[in-house]
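[job 0412] stage=fold_complex status=start
inputs:
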Amino acid sequence: MVIFPFRNKNVCRVTKIYALKDDRYKSGKHNGIDLVSDGSRDVLAISGGSVIRNGYLPSSWGKYIVIRHKDGKSAVYAHLSESKVKLNQYVVEDENIGVMGSTGNSTGSHLHIEIQNKYYTPSDTSDIAEYLGIKNKVGKVEDVLQTELVKIKTPKGQEFAIEGINIEGSNYVKLRPVLEALGFKVGWENKTVIIEE
Ligand SMILES: [Zn+2]
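[job 0412] stage=fold_complex status=done
writing structure:
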């Protein structure tokens, strides 16, 4: 389970995407994603783990924290104005570990967050956007909606599966394929679904 690094995702923006090609970086690409919170500046641990770095790199990450998760991957939180953790400390998911800032090589207040597959191998990173379940796209943070097959059973014993999505505990399926599977014709006019036999 991974949570978003700011309390209110709806007031957050992506300002630089993961894997953006840029020769200023040693690996030739942006290894993380840049996020700006227009609400609370508190940075939350996206997953529990041990603090394996709590340092300062003036020409790059500024004030930064590295937390190693149980899956062996490490999350880097950079450009912080303040760190609230100690080296070797164990933090839990959702714990406030620092404050968004603009320390190090940064032109404005933001959080650079990246996932290193092994401890301190900066060129070997995972797609942090995928890790967080958000779109790797500049602008307002948007969730990636995962579709899954939802089984439909009717009183007549018909059974079939339709692609659906689950949002905050509710299942959503498209009406048209359901009705068509039941043998109806479906039309659409002025926000009205017209069902014909
Ligand atoms: Zn960045």
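[job 0412] summary: The two ends are 46 Å apart (CA to CA).
[job 0412] exit 0
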